[in-house]
Amino acid sequence: MTVRNFLWGQAPSTKQERNLLFKLDFFILSYTCLVYFTNYLDRSNINNAYVSGMKEDLSMEGTDFNKILTIFTCGYIVGMIPNNLMLQILPPRLWLPLCQIVWGVLTFCTSAVTNVQQVYAIRFFQGIAESSTFVGTHYILGSWYKPGELGKRSGIFTSSGLAGTLFSGVLQGAVYSNLNGVSGRSGWRWLFIIDGVITLPIALYGFWLFPDVPATTKVFYLSDEDRQLAASRLQGYVEVRHSPLSWKLAKKVLTRWRWYACSLLFAISGETESFGSNNLMGQWLKAIGGYSVEQTDYYPSGVTAFGILSTLVCAVWTDYTQVRWPVLVYMSVSCIVASVCILVWNSPTGLKFFAYYLAGASYSGQATTFAWANQICADDDQERAIVLASMNMWNNVVNAWWSIVFYPATDAPKFTKGMIAMIVICVATLAVTGLVWYLERREHRLGNRLEDTPTRDSEQEENQSTKENT
User: Are 142 and 233 in contact (CB under 8 A)?
Assistant: First the structure.
């Protein structure tokens, strides 16, 4: 086993397959990673804007910040399944960039708000538009790659979103230092203007070069041989047929265990990301005082940096071993340790920094969970689209109220309720991970048993053949 195979998977069997994978990796990952980068840049900009002047400029009080996050999440929930079903109707090359243009324009609008109610309205519609990115990309990845290739690609995609979070803190610090007050605009307003400028050109790139899915792709850089190979190499791994939608789909999805178990898994495990999604470290630093605006923006970037490292290492490992569940164990244990360190309030400040940074491991489960779901549902294209969308939808249903109940801004700096909730959710994640592992293994055993069991007709044929030979 070479280092190259360990890091990137089994080498393609032919030069044509190697060239195909190069094209897919370049055009799919370059676009989806840029989109997800701007997606998370936008989400993180709200967090950074809040601690960099938006709270004071818009006279925000109490849980106004948590309401912004919740309203965005509500829009995200509303748009989740419709966006993924739209990919069955319209080419992803058109739908995904169109959604990106919508949220880019709304980002510009955020820079001109005069009260928090306007932010509420904008964030709801941004949530609808942005919900196309995450589950849409995992559906696209599962349509082009084998299970052994999915973990790393999912990890790279997830890391691009984390890079957006990481860059947001650095960007906000730089904007506050250099643009605050320029043309009469606060630094946090300039942040949303720059975000919008970054977003729109990427959408145009997607209109031109994104390859859709194997059944419908018409991009100029894939030859007829490439398209045939893209479908044939997935035979036995992934269902590549693109069937029309019908009501039978709902019955099929709801009578299998996959939708329930996978949705439950991410609905619970996704809440471990509350450390980062609610910028708890930034709120902690702001509440205890003694840190400048720039430091409050920069220091939480360490959480994201460790999240990127954990995601990539775990993604490589899971593709190499073809086992997904240990990543969720690692993530849960790390978050339990971090929560305990923060709960012990008299512990040194350095230990709290360590705890928040260790909590970045919570991001590593995202790519692995969706790669696992893609693998579980690989035999049904439409079910896979629904399950992936539902996983993220149910997680956001929980997100809609989770931060208000357990991480209200008024609980800073201790977040005692939140740390206790984190420990509980990590234990629940371990339990549901074991359930999904068991159900997947049971399905494989039953499937193999059915394949190995001859039918009554074949048994009769065998008996007849035996008699004739006798």
Answer: no
The SS3 call for residue 378 is: coil
Tens digits of residue pLDDT in 435-456: 999 999 999 888 765 555 554 4
Amino acid at 208: W
39-61 confidence digits (pLDDT tens):
877 777 787 788 778 888 899 98
Mapping DSSP to helix (H, G, I), strand (E, B) and coil, where does residue 125 land?
helix
First and final C-alpha spacing in the chain: 51
Q: Is residue 113 within 8 Å of residue 119, measured between CB atoms?
A: yes
Whole-angstrom CA distances from 58 to 46, 116, 133 are 13, 6, 30
Residues 49, 176: Cα–Cα separation, whole Å: 10
Looking at this protein, which amino acid is placed at residue 438?
Y
CA dihedral for 115, 121, 124, 128, sign (positive or negative): negative
List the one residue out of 332, 315, 310 whose CA is nearest residue 431. 332
Separation between Cα atoms, residue 213 and residue 141, nearest integer Å? 9
CB 432 within 8 A of CB 268: yes
Give CA angle at 284 (348, 60), nearest 5°.
165
Among 94, 379, 117, 38, residue whose Cα is nearest residue 213: 94
Q: What are phi and psi of 13, to 5 degrees?
A: -75, -25
> What is the rounded average pLDDT for all residues in the chain?
84
Q: What is the pLDDT of residue 7?
A: 57
Place of tokens 């818009």: 58
pLDDT in tens, 272-288: 988 887 888 888 888 88
